[in-house]
Design goal:
Elements: H1 15-25, H2 32-39, E1 58-60, E2 63-67, E3 72-78, H3 94-109, E4 114-118, E5 123-129, E6 141-148, E7 153-159, E8 165-172, E9 177-181, E10 187-193, E11 199-201, H4 203-208, E12 209-214, E13 218-223, E14 244-249, E15 254-258, H5 273-293
Parallel strand pairs: 1-3, 2-4, 3-5, 4-6, 5-7, 6-8, 7-9, 8-14, 9-15, 10-14, 11-15
Antiparallel strand pairs: 10-13, 12-13
Length: 296
């Protein structure tokens, strides 16, 4: 009698090992509950707001802000009736506090109402001067300083006191400057530059400004409100109580405009600073010729 035994075929060597590795690398079966519990994480926590870039308008006076490398930005309403306001010392390092105190003493000596300084950072500010609640017998002058060594500056001075004046000093050694002054600005503006053709006027500013004198490094322009625009040329001598502005840049460009009227996307007026100076010299030459010849 013959016995037939079942034959178990042998698997090729290494098959079991490959199947085991494939099972380990394959993704787990789909489970809706598991996915729902792992995909939703906690909401992101917002980082701390920088004191150098406030998100809401700040009402300040005797306010001094300094940063070595960081940028400065924000909206500041300068109220000369407020007591002194400044950054808490706890926000500054020991070396930063020492430098800050030095600048603070300098600003106090200069009687500044607001000073914004940085060495390497950019500065972008919207500034306004708050009107006094009670009329004053004398005009109050508000002094503002904006300065950086290597950064660009963008300042929009959108308002000033009706019964006061503003003294604005804006300077950058290497950066470009864009400055908008309020339509009610009334007084001289001095430009200190070392590059020919570095100053451009936007259209509305060019209509209200007239060149008084110019040299290789300094040019004086007189700006009048639109109400006095018709006789700007005859009233080009600074008087007590007028507004005042100094804009300085060694190697950067300067763009001037009227706040709320001019726009940066507008192409700068062809009547630039040196074109206006040329017209001024030509007018003076004609006046001298008429005086010498006695003819019109």
């Amino acid at each position: 009698m013959t016995m037939i035994l079942p034959i178990n075929p042998e698997k090729p060597k290494g098959v079991d090992e490959q199947q085991s590795k494939a099972a380990e690398s394959s993704p787990p079966p789909y489970s809706p509950n598991a996915n729902a519990s792992t995909s939703a994480g906690p909401p992101p926590t917002p980082g701390p707001l920088s004191p150098f870039q406030p998100q809401t308008p700040q009402r300040v006076n005797r306010f001094f802000l300094f940063s070595r490398h960081g940028s400065l930005s924000g909206t500041y309403l300068i109220d000369p009736t407020l007591p002194r306001s400044s950054l808490p010392p706890a926000l500054l390092s020991h070396s930063g506090l020492k430098k800050f105190r030095k600048l603070e003493r300098s600003a106090e000596k200069e009687k500044l109402n607001a000073a914004f300084r940085t060495r390497h950072g950019a500065i972008s500010l919207d500034l306004g001067v708050v009107d006094a609640e009670q009329p004053r017998a004398e005009k109050e002058r508000v002094r503002i300083l904006v300065s950086t060594r290597h950064g660009h500056i963008n300042v929009n001075l959108f308002g000033k006191q009706e019964d006061g004046s503003v003294d604005l000093d804006v300077s950058s050694r290497d950066g470009h400057i864009v400055l908008f002054i309020p339509p009610t600005f009334n007084g001289p503006i001095a430009f200190n530059t070392r590059r020919a053709g570095a100053v451009n006027f936007l259209p509305a500013f060019a209509q209200r400004a007239s060149v008084v004198r110019a040299s290789d490094r300094e040019t004086l322009v007189f700006f009048r409100p639109v109400a006095n625009g018709a006789d700007t040329a005859s009233k080009s001598t600074p008087a007590e109580g007028d507004d005042c502005c100094v804009v300085s840049s060694r190697s950067g460009r300067v763009t001037m405009g009227v706040s709320g009227v001019d726009r940066m996307e507008t192409k700068p007026s062809a009547i630039g600073l040196f074109k206006q100076f040329g017209d001024f010299v030509e007018a003076q030459a004609k006046a001298l010729e008429i005086k010498l010849t006695g003819s019109v």
